[in-house]
């Protein structure tokens, strides 16, 4: 056999072997399963005869007198101003009164007076069960049994004529329907939830992210901020009961806690702020099964361990106290400044600007013993923050007004931000999808003035400067901003507005 023929035979054998291996891989290695999420609309939701969607099921907007109007009513009858920020609350378990009533937002009128649109998603009759049963309703289909008031006035269970979608899918359907028909131009959308309502916020965000990934919606429909109050994230029962592809994948064995961790991480990557207020043992339930499991969730949020000494041993009162505090402190100082008492420069509250909340992700706060349930002037918060920080967002100032007013839609990636102290370069960051950059300093930074220098992508230039401290463009015409660190845990928000042209 000639040398050339031997070489040809070897090459041919190698090629045939490669082809055989490729065929084996195709045959024996299963193709990655994909899921296309279903886009549920209100008209797709089957409303059982005994489910009261006039009062107890659906999305409702608060009026100035404290009453509520369904989001599906003619828009001229709904108390909604598209130029104002929006806060939506999702209640938790209402056993055993949800069959005839719901849980109203504390101080909803106070939020209206502060210039918010205020809405609540009610699912009262379906939440009139113990929380482990409610979890199936929030996350799974086919568990839509509910309570109603029978002709004899008794609390009665309906187990045959049932809702066809999960609670999270129903909420998102009503939410997207309203927002799609009534263009939102406000500064912020905030989703809030207590207990199973907090779990519903997590599931809803999982669903919204899947809809975004599949091209059903744009970022304009995502919230800017999530507020979780003692979220109930326990996972019980078989996975087969949770038959919705959350985050475009089958239900993970980790259950709601797994998705809470993943959702808060994904939210952070996209520039969405999350705060978590823990007020009872409910927040630590997952730790009973897996010690330390909630730490991952808390690390992705601005976390407050609420001290509800006034609640004593009443678990129910403890469980709701963080939510009650949050909604009532809307009239307090945005930062609840208690420097003279605690040494903590800033402690957050519901009116703390969202960019500031985002920049404090991972920070932990605790509350000094609080013996007064309905007095909020004596609330003192401590934090574990120890160093100053300079942070901000690069954004497309499409309307050239100097304000980051197009929310998540206008964040800019691939923008280079550099920080200098005199001639010394302290650090450099290139923004990702969130548009966010930050520079963590140390105690020696106090009293020093720093220069933030931003280099836009090709074809972009600097927007006009704005005096808005948290949402405005801080850059001058040369793409720089001067920042003086005034305290040992100071946080300065220094945004970069850019325009294309």
Write the topology of this structure.
Blueprint: H1 3-28, E1 57-62, E2 68-70, E3 86-90, H2 108-113, E4 117-123, H3 131-139, E5 146-149, E6 155-158, H4 167-181, E7 189-194, H5 196-213, E8 225-229, H6 255-270, E9 273-278, H7 285-289, H8 294-299, E10 302-305, H9 315-328, H10 339-342, H11 354-359, E11 364-367, E12 381-383, E13 389-396, E14 416-421, E15 424-430, E16 436-440, E17 449-455, E18 460-462, E19 480-484, E20 491-493, E21 496-500
Explain what you see.
With about 500 residues, this protein is of the alpha/beta class. It has 3 domains: about 1-30; about 40-385, Rossmann fold (3-Layer(aba) Sandwich); about 390-500, Immunoglobulin-like. About 25% of the residues lie in helices and about 20% in strands. The strands form 4 sheets. The chain has a 10-stranded mixed sheet. Strands 13, 16, 18, 20 and 21 form a 5-stranded mixed sheet that branches. The protein has a 4-stranded antiparallel sheet with strand order 15-14-17-19, with no helix packed on it. Helix 6 links the parallel strand 8 and strand 9. Helix 3 packs parallel to helix 5 (about 195-215). Residues about 1-35 and about 335-345 have low confidence and may be disordered.
Low-pLDDT runs of 5+ residues are: 1-33, 337-345
Strand content: 15-25%
Name given to the CATH architecture of the largest domain? 3-Layer(aba) Sandwich
Total helical segments: 11
Shape: globular
CATH class of the largest domain: Alpha Beta
**Radius of gyration, CA atoms, in whole angstroms:** 26 Å
Separation of termini? Answer: 71 Å
Derived structural class: alpha/beta
**Mean pLDDT across residues:** 87
CATH topology group of the largest domain: Rossmann fold
* Multimeric status of the protein: single chain
Please state how the strands of the largest beta sheet are arranged side by side. Answer: 2-1-4-3-7-8-9-10-11-12
The profile of the biggest β sheet is:
10 strands, mixed
Measured as a percent range, the helix fraction is 10-25%
Count up the domains.
Answer: 3
């Amino acid at each position: 056999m000639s040398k050339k023929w031997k070489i040809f035979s070897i090459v041919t054998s190698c090629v045939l072997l490669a082809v055989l291996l490729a065929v084996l891989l195709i045959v024996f290695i299963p193709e990655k399963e994909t899921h296309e999420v279903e886009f549920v609309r209100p008209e797709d939701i089957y409303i059982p005869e005994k489910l009261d969607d006039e009062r107890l099921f659906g999305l409702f907007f608060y009026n100035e007198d404290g009453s509520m109007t369904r989001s599906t009513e003619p828009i001229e009858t709904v108390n909604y101003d598209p130029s104002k920020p929006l806060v939506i609350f999702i209640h938790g378990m209402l056993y055993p009164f949800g069959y005839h009533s719901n849980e109203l937002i504390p101080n909803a009128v106070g939020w209206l007076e502060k210039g918010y649109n205020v809405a609540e998603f009610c699912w009262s009759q379906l939440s009139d069960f113990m929380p482990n049963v409610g979890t199936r309703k929030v996350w799974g289909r086919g568990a839509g049994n509910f309570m109603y008031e029978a002709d004899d006035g008794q609390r009665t269970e309906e187990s045959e004529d049932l809702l066809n979608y999960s609670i999270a899918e129903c909420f998102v359907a009503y939410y997207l329907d309203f927002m799609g028909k009534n263009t939102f131009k406000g500064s912020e959308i905030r989703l809030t939830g207590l207990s199973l309502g907090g779990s519903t916020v997590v599931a809803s965000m999982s669903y919204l992210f899947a809809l975004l990934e599949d091209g059903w919606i744009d970022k304009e429909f995502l919230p800017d901020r999530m507020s979780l109050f003692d979220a109930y994230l326990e996972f019980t029962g078989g996975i087969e009961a949770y038959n919705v592809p959350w985050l475009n994948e089958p239900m993970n064995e980790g259950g709601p806690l797994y998705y809470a961790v993943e959702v808060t991480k994904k939210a952070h990557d996209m520039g969405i702020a999350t705060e978590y207020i823990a007020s009872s043992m409910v927040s630590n339930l997952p730790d009973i099964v897996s010690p330390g499991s909630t730490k991952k969730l808390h690390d992705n949020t601005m976390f407050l361990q609420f001290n509800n000494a006034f609640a004593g041993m009443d678990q129910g009162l403890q469980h709701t106290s963080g939510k009650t505090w949050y909604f009532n402190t809307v009239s307090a100082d945005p930062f609840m400044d208690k420097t003279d008492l605690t040494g903590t420069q800033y402690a957050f509250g519901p009116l703390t600007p969202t960019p500031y909340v985002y920049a404090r992700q991972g920070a932990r706060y605790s509350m000094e013993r609080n013996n007064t349930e309905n007095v909020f002037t004596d609330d003192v918060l401590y934090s574990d923050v120890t160093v100053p920080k300079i942070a901000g967002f690069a954004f497309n100032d499409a309307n050239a007004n100097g304000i980051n007013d197009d929310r998540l839609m206008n964040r800019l990636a691939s923008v280079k931000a550099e920080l200098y102290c005199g001639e010394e370069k302290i650090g450099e960051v290139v923004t990702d999808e969130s548009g966010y950059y930050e520079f963590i300093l140390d105690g020696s930074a106090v009293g020093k003035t720093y220069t933030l220098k931003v280099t836009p992508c090709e074809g972009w230039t600097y927007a006009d400067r704005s005096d808005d401290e948290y949402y405005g463009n801080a850059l001058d015409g040369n793409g720089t901003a001067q920042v003086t660190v005034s305290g040992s845990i100071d946080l300065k928000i220094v945004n970069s507005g850019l325009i294309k042209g």
